[in-house]
Amino acid sequence: MTEGTAPATPVAAPKDAPPASDGPVARILAKLVLPAAAILLALIVGAVIMIASSPLVSGSIDFTLPFRAYAALVTGAVGSPNAIISTLAASTPLILAGLGVGIGFKAGLFNIGAQGQFWMGGLAAAAAGVATAGLPPVAAIPIAVGAGLLGGAAYGFIPGFLKAFTGAHEVVTTIMLNYIAVQILAWAASGPLRGESVSFARTETITTAILPVIVGREGHIGILFAAAMVPLASWLLYRSTLGFEIRTVGANPHAARYAGMRPRFLIILTMSIAGLLAGLAGTTEVLGQLHHIPAAYSTSIGFDAIAVALLGRSSPMGILFAGLLFGAMRAGSGLMQIQAGIPVQMVSVLQAVILFFLAADVIVRAIFRIRGRGIGSSSEMQTITQSYADQTAK
Amino acid sequence: MTTPDLPPAADSGPPLLEMRGITKRYPGVVANDAISLDVRAGEIHALLGENGAGKSTLMNILYGLAVPDEGEILLNGSEVEIDGPNDAIRRGISMVHQHFMLVPVLSVAENILLGEEPMANPLFLDRRDAHVRIRKLGAQFGFEVDPDAKVGSLSVGWQQRVEILKALYRNANILVLDEPTAVLTPQETREIFAVLRQLTKELGTSVIFISHKLYEVLDIADRITVIRRGKVVGSRIPSETDEEDLAQLMVGRDVQLTVDRGESHPAEPVFSVTGLNVSDDRGHPVVRDVSFEVRAGEILGIAGVAGNGQDEMVEALVGLRRVASGGVTLGGRNVTGASPRSLHQQGVGFVPADRHRYGIVLSFPLTDNLALNDYYHPPYARGMVRNDDAILENAERIIGEYDIRTPSATVSAGTLSGGNQQKVVVGREFDGNLTLLVLEQPTRGLDVGSIEFIHRQAIGKRDAGVAVLLVSAELDEVLELSDRVGVMYRGHLVTILDARTTNREEVGLLMATGGRDAAPTAEPVAS
Amino acid sequence: MDVLYDLPFIGYVFQLAGWLIEILPIIAPTIVAAAVPIALGALCGFMNERSGVVNIGIEGMMLTAAFVAWWTASIVAQVVPGDVIGPLGITAPLLIGLLAAVGAAMLVSLVHAWLSISVRADQIISGTIITIFAVGITGYLNLLISQSAPPSAGQFARFEVPEWLVNIPVIGWLFEALFAQGPIGLSLLISVVLLQVLLFRSRWGLRTRAVGEHPEAAETVGIDVIALRYRNVILGGIFAGLAGAYLTIEFGNSFQGEMTNGRGFIALAALIFGRWTPVGAFAAALLFTASDGIQRAVRFGPPEGALGEFLSSIPTQFYSSLPYLITIIVLAGVVGRSVAPAAVGRPFSREKRERRAPPATDADEPAAA
After folding, report:
1. Whole-number pLDDT of residue A8
2. How far apart are the first and last CA of chain B?
3. Among all residues of chain B, which has the CA nearest to that of C339?
4. What does the angle CA C187 – CA C193 – CA C195 come to, to the nearest 5 degrees?
5. Contacts 24+ apart (CB under 8 A), B76-82
6. pLDDT at A333
7. Which residues contact C309 (CB under 8 A, 6 or more apart)?
């Protein structure tokens, strides 16, 4: 990791730069303590919820339920080569979309629209995939993937453009665009793109443009996209001048403007990159897993990506690990439901509780007696974006 | 009631307010170190000290915004504990903050009665009663203001009157004013002083007047207490002291009250502005037909009350705001509407008024802050790739040259003191081959040492043949440094005077009236 | 009339207007019914944002309340008789369910208040956490509960609007649409009017506006900013609670996972479109749901001729997207600009001000003495 030049948190809290005397190992460890503690506490809270709800599962209070549930979760996630591969496959879209959200954070943008960008990327990829059914894979795959990238980027461009030129806050516009994306997808997959041969509203099955499986049953090549994007994003943010510009705009847009950077351009570019990555996430899901896109595509990957970016503190390496963790929970949740009778929704609960403890790090610090930055009780997750009301981008 | 004309020492009985041995520590700094202070009824007591000396902390303690670690506060001889602003107000203490505590979208009346609302019934406000009281108070002190006017639409001078009305409305008998004249013209200052004197005479109000301006303190105060680095270093009665004495007390060593600016040797004009028009964010023209030239080796000062278009003019000149019309040339080349980057490449340096806004990225290390203008070209970058070694080398060089006190070049800028943060900005902007230097209130909020340093650097650049444009609402700074002085008034550059032949009064009058006889400060609604 | 319709092009506008006037009384009740939870959610946002706290967790609060209302009522109904004990079909289980829902939403609001105000976490993150958690926990519990298929406790009844009011010519249908509602729907009408008046006329309203615009100024005149924000955020929870309960014990009588279906986010849009006022937000909610109502009307009884064909040819999804599109357009300032309270999203810190007073740790105070 080459992020020696900036705090990896999305937070613009000036005083939390670690003392320069600490070695790099100590610094990385220090960064891991808080997330690890938050995950541990979340597992405990999850266990309490399971025990409290165990009468609904087995008719009486059952203190062993959490152990069985977590054991099944772990087995389902990493218990066999196939489990590991499905963990990787489940992590892929989370890491990709998480990188998109994280880069947005670095630029001071809160991209709640990863979900919409995910759908639009997936839709574009599916449309291209269906259209290229006559082409050989070597041509069809790049076209479909390229379409997915473009679809996501275009959908990220819109809020970026609106923010840059009208000041409309990206939090609200991206929420609205998410719901518009639902409607666009519903319209396209039940109208012009609807498959003739299938009984319910979805596109035709994609044939030539599907991502080839390289390992196991579902280890498609999209996993490599995620693996490649992590170092690329890291290089972009910390080694390139463009990344410096993005981070400067995020930390102080006025200073960025005076330094000759173009905040409007950078906001639009960053949102487009964020959309591109979320779109790629949608693309890998559609071309790698589903092989079609349904009119009612219910998924929360775009929202989970926000959790991934926050847990990973918007640094690409952090996002890699956070994405793998949440991917593992997602992959293992099926077995947890089958073996322990714990509904898969428990995974969302755990994710929310992890985030809660990260946001309310005062609790975590108190419980584990972690030495903090001292003054007051400010959260690690202080205002990432500029004031919500700061509607006029100059 | 005391007779304010008598020396306050003749007063008998306990003082109205007494603060004894007040100590307040913050991590790494003792803001107040056993400060004692007493204020008698009906006196104007000045608290003199430079920026950061601890005056505001002391007053925040008095106003219940901060809790002292040690010491006690006595009102009318009995000890009290002030538990928040509410309690302070109830005990008759009111405070006018340096940055006005007014809600711009609320009306004058709403601002005044906020927190002290008269109720018509348990649910609804009694607006009529409030209006009557506000009008009556205003009439008594000669400032009638429309209670329904939005505060955001008032001029700075009138906003201050609203602040004073707020205190009067609460029947304050101790009124604290924190640097009240910072934003006023000398004429407005006189008007406010007259109001303060009237208050003490007619109502017996005590005034605590916080300032770092020596002549003002000598003018208005009955007694002066001087604070330096958190400690009381002396008390004076104006008739028994002078500016040199106070300055020595305030800074702790002999200071030159004015920088030795030496002789300037202006050459030919290198920067010229003709017929410049600029609009603000809402599209209203705020800079109107401004023309001037700056010669190499001279400092042109632009004075003016804040909000008369200076900010927008500076922003337009350094490429941060669109030029509506007019021309700007630098060294003969047309730079109208040029970007900040191209101006920088052509030798323009800019020290902004608000360094936290334009000058510095607090969360970034000094290395990145010092490379902010040059990060994109060799040796700091090869193509798109940053060269961290060159960036570090550059930072260490500037840190040495400009005496920036920091543990290392990689700590974040936010950990430095205000003076050192400003040195980071100055170091970056003064570095390299300059043609024009634009300084906008370059010393706001700094201690005397940093001010002297920056002033010396600016004079040094002038002597090196750089054209310097100094824009400041601090009239003293403009008069001290400039060779020629211009005045901005409602977007117009009224006139340009020779600094050797003009004086505070003349410039002040121009700032207040724009050179016309009308007294625009009497209009409640400026914009 | 027909003469006007025959005018070239403009004729379609007249025909559309005529058709709308004709169908409005028919679709009005469904429009109002759909708008109630959105407007209630917007009131929750109003209480938050006017005092300077962003709340994008309304969706989660509503979902939690919807579940708690339904589940509590269902449990109580198995113990306590479901006799009607008051007007508007009030039964003990329903009443207890409603109170539980309101209590639950207030509890979630307390968490939001604590994270946003005391911990000073990013308020958008706090809202996101609430929504993710609500979706997870209600889905989790609902799945477990549904295995035992608990009975429904029914739903509130509608107010019967007096005949003479409904029979007033031209505007009678308006009374029917607005007042023929259960207790929650009626409470919305009262709340909108009450909050609108209180915001501009009461001490609470003045202080709330001050705290949302310039908390530091409010603090210096003795207003406890933190307490007022806490109070308003928690009270705001009441409205999210009512909104959720409306879905499961007034408008409907069952719960499904994620049944709020984005209403909490449309509520946010309505608040913005309504310029942060209760009446404006209610009007915006009506406008938003009217879009869906018109779409249905087009499907079942389109206007005659080319206009009808044109309206029918527009995909239904377009009508559903309209509220979101309109909100974006308003935010972008294309049609008038909506400006948020100035301090929204900015955590207030008393210590910050204290810390600002002394100089930062100094290595270089003027080389004194």
Report:
1. 33
2. 41
3. B105
4. 90
5. B76/B14, B76/B16, B77/B13, B77/B14, B77/B18
6. 95
7. C302
Task: Tell whether B366 is within 8 A of chain A (Cβ).
Answer: no
Tokens describing residue C200: 């501009």
Q: What's the pLDDT at C336?
A: 53
Indicate yes or no: CB of C214 within 8 angstroms of CB of B102.
Answer: yes
pLDDT at B318 > cutoff 70: yes
CB contacts of A239 in chain B (<8 Å) are 385-386
> Which residue in B436, A189, B446 sits closest to C362, CA to CA?
B446
User: Which run of H or E residues covers position B350?
Assistant: strand B348-351
Q: In the structure, what pLDDT confidence band is assigned to residue A318 with cuts at 50, 70 and 90?
A: very high
The Cα–Cα gap between B188 and B201 comes to: 20
Question: Taken in order B159, B160, B163, B165, is the CA torsion positive or negative?
Answer: negative
Q: What is the radius of gyration, based on Cα positions, of chain B? A: 25
pLDDT band at B103 (very low <50, low <70, confident <90, very high): very high
Report the C-alpha gap between A165 and A167 in whole angstroms: 6
pLDDT at residue B512 above 60? yes
For residue A328 the two structure tokens come to: 């593992």
Complex ipTM: 0.87
Give the residue from B221, B208, B218, B219 showing the smallest Cα distance to B246: B218
pLDDT in tens, B344-371: 999 999 999 888 888 899 889 999 999 9
Q: Give the DSSP letter string of B71-124.
A: EEEEETTEEE---HHHHHHHTTEEEE-SS----TTSBHHHHHHTTS--BSSSSB
Task: Choose among C136, C268, C315: nearest Cβ to A191.
Answer: C315
Q: Is any Cβ of chain A less than 8 angstroms from the Cβ of C171?
A: no
Rounded CA gap, B65 and C364, in Å? 28
Measured CA to CA, the distance from residue B332 to residue C327 in angstroms comes to: 50
Mean pLDDT over each residue of chain A, to the nearest integer: 86
Task: Tell me the C-alpha distance between B161 and A386, whole Å.
Answer: 32
Interface of B with A in 458-487 (CB under 8 A): none
pLDDT > 70? residue A340 = yes
Binned at pLDDT 50, 70 and 90, residue C107 comes out as very high
pLDDT tens sequence across A90-123: 999 999 999 999 999 999 898 999 999 999 999 9
Distance of CA C229 to the CA centre of its chain: 19
Report the SS3 class of residue B357.
helix
Tell me the shortest Cα–Cα distance from C89 to chain A, in angstroms. Answer: 31
Chain centre to alpha carbon of residue A210: 22
The set of chains that have 3 or more CB pairs under 8 A with B is A, C
pLDDT at C185: 96
Other CB atoms within 10 Å distance of the CB of residue B208: 25
Identify the helix (H) or strand (E) that includes residue B526.
Answer: none
Lowest mean pLDDT, pick from A228-232, B168-172, C206-210: B168-172
Beta carbons of B359 and A7 less than 8 Å apart:
no
N- to C-terminal Cα separation, chain C: 94
- Nearest in space to C315 (alpha carbons), one of B301, B35, A194, B476: A194
For B184, the 3-state DSSP assignment is coil
**Residues in A 324-363 with any Cβ partner in C closer than 8 A:** 342-343, 345-353, 355-356, 359-360, 362
Instruction: Write the residue in A12, A255, A375 that is nearest to B360 by C-beta.
Output: A255
Whether C321 sits inside 8 A of A353 (CB atoms) is: no
Torsion of CA C286, C288, C290, C295, to 10 degrees: -170
Contact B58, B19 (CB under 8 A): yes
Q: How far apart are CA C361 and CA C21, in angstroms?
A: 70
pLDDT in tens, B118-170: 888 888 888 888 888 889 888 888 778 889 999 988 877 788 889 989 988 98
